[in-house]
């Protein structure tokens, strides 16, 4: 232990943000423990590291008694006063000891402890940095793919994208730059585990916030998002200022804003819908790009019957029911879509049934 070591601790404190005094206190405790272990001493040991020179003083602590029964833990008053003339019965004498090879042992233990504390501090710093960025977009570089997990270099650590968070059809090539959604930060024995996603609806939300100033400043609010990653997303927006067009703001001049987001999502289709507190209007808009003729709602069941022109039926339902499914998720309503002809036939059947019931009652 020497002055260079103290200078190294100063450097660690400055670069790593680790309190030097806390580190020295921990080193002193570790060295005391190492001394007892290596020398089998029953003494109470006191270690002191000089903050300037790095010199280590080792003292055995002994109770000052009138009659010594255990010379390992006790010392007589006369012997104690040879060390310090003001000692009295009942005091604890500090007796300097200089064990052989102690400097080497001390240095080894100190080095191990410093390395351990630095690792712990770095892990905590990384954890604190990333925990504050949960639910945000972060940039990284794809490192490798292992057991279907994608590992992404995030600078001081790496993120893990599990198979469930990967978009089907996207290629995750090594060394490729990528934007991901920071899903969760976990503390583990090996350091923080950073889980990221490309499928989470939050990724779309954050992309709109970065591309649309009106969303970023709060003029336009994202009310709801439903997403089937890699295929289609529906996003409902509302303007707090009546003079602002929320859909137009998101689309941007010549469609540039939404196109930037589509490009980032590798061609994923995005339907931007104007949110409304009128459920009929909101449900009709949610089925875009289909045109809706009529919406009948059941407040009790929170369900809706939507009528569209015959030629619009397949568009309203979407491929494999996707458009209707996303609309239902966006609005929170159960949606049943019928063509105009189907609705008319249903009405005719219902009318005939009602007439039959009337006849039976007569």
From TrEMBL:
Domain of life: Bacteria
Entry's Gene Ontology molecular function annotations: DNA-binding transcription factor activity; RNA binding
SUPFAM superfamilies on file: Nucleic acid-binding proteins, Prokaryotic type KH domain (KH-domain type II), Transcription factor NusA, N-terminal domain
Main location class: cytoplasm
Keyword Glycoprotein: no
Record keyword Acetylation present: no
Quaternary structure (record): Monomer. Binds directly to the core enzyme of the DNA-dependent RNA polymerase and to nascent RNA.
Primary role: Participates in both transcription termination and antitermination.
Protein name: Transcription termination/antitermination protein NusA
Lineage: Bacteria, Bacillati, Bacillota, Clostridia, Eubacteriales
